[in-house]
Amino acid sequence: MLTKKVHSIKFVIALLPLVFLSVTACKNMSISEADTAYFGGEIINPKGDKVILYNRRIQVSDTLQLDKNNRFSYKISNLEPAVYTFWHGGEIQFVILEPNDSVMIRLNTYEFDKSLVFTGEGSKKNNYLIKTFLNNDKKSKNLVKNIQKKEPEEFEAYVNNRHQKELRDFENFKRKNPISQLASSVIQANIDYRNYADKEIYPFAYFGENKLVHIKDLPDGFYDFRKEIDYNATHLSEIFAYNRYLFFHIDNLAATKYYNDNTFHSKFNRHQLAYNKSKLNLVDSLVKDEIIKNNILKYKTREFINHSRNQDEVNELMASYAAKTTNEEDIKSLNKLISSLNNLKPGKGLPDLLVIDSKNQEYTIADVVKKPTLIYFWSTNEKKHYKNSHYRVKELQVLFPEMGFMSININDNPDKFWKETIHQYKFNLDNEYRFKNPKEALETLAVSYLYKVIIVDSKANIIHPNVNIFNEDFENTLKDMIQKKELILK
């Protein structure tokens, strides 16, 4: 107990300058500044010298410079109340800003989300928002572990009871802390759409792809909440829980349509062209808001492109996508992805990209590769992923001692953050590298998600451009590659 009290006192003392700044800012606001807000704070262990505040819908994007004490303060005139995104060192989080707010943040980049605290006028709604975000993340992870064990009726009762409790807690909060309709709507959406998403995910996890046809056997009323779905909630377009729900919802609707159009015993294939075209058609028919619609269309198309090995099918889906989106930059981006993937076909040499080791020596990837090698990627912003991926590779090194393993960090911030991480976790420095030009490298290698792994032979020719080392059958897949491609002998 004594330790906790000491930490609490230190925390309050550390926050005093921020609280004073926020109170002072509020007192200095004149009546003519009623549409003004203040946003500022302190970044502990910063991964750069700036914070980016933006909202793509109202086309706001401001760069806020950190001072020598790693603090920043920003006055926003003519504020449009909305959910804004703030970005630092490759990580993002949200803040609700409304007129007369004076919101200050304090966070430590080593635990970006968990350490985030808001103070000042407008802080209570934002602290509750981050609380629901962290609850969503924690509970969703726990649910995934047990989701396959729960029968449909048991699962439905569990989610419904959890949902109602979260809403009751929120009503209690609002009685003590009156907030605006905007803030209330955003926080409730964060609660609602996470619970709704779990129900959309359920049939894929419980039945699996081989028995997904049984989606029709779910209890009556399982998806009654869909009547409440707003496909065009403009004020939620920046919210992760809302976008995540729509992604899973579209997948689920398309799966139902799949079994309406195919025989009962048809094996479901999430990478089938017809299924993915169906997803784009559903988005086109259900979503009218341009930003929300373009966002879902882009991600669903990119998902297919990343996993397809059939160029004709990729072209067909791209034609369908291009006819539905209004974002020309997204079209260009996906065409670049297709071009990059075409250069990563099995048998082709890996592009000649520069990497840097922990001693600041430069090499091409081909210089590093001396034997058949598994190349994987990680970011200092994704702690769980980089710990799991390195642990998984340790297992694979024991099982496949004849293979090489190359770890490449993708961050574009100063290399001290990368070096701190690899030394802190005692990663094998002989295998650790970072890209010299991360943006160029990620585009060239089509690394749009961290689970992508590339396998090359001893001459850095591509054996497989995209595998997932966390898949259950990966070890058998690698053994099969070794046998069929004579990987180890090359």
UniProtKB/TrEMBL annotation:
Name assigned to this protein:
Thioredoxin domain-containing protein
**InterPro entries attached to this UniProt entry:** Thioredoxin-like_sf (IPR036249)
Q: Which PROSITE patterns match?
A: PROKAR_LIPOPROTEIN (PS51257)
* Alphabetic keyword roster: Signal
- Which interval of the chain is the signal sequence? 1-25
Q: Which SUPFAM superfamilies match?
A: Thioredoxin-like
Q: Does the keyword Signal apply?
A: yes
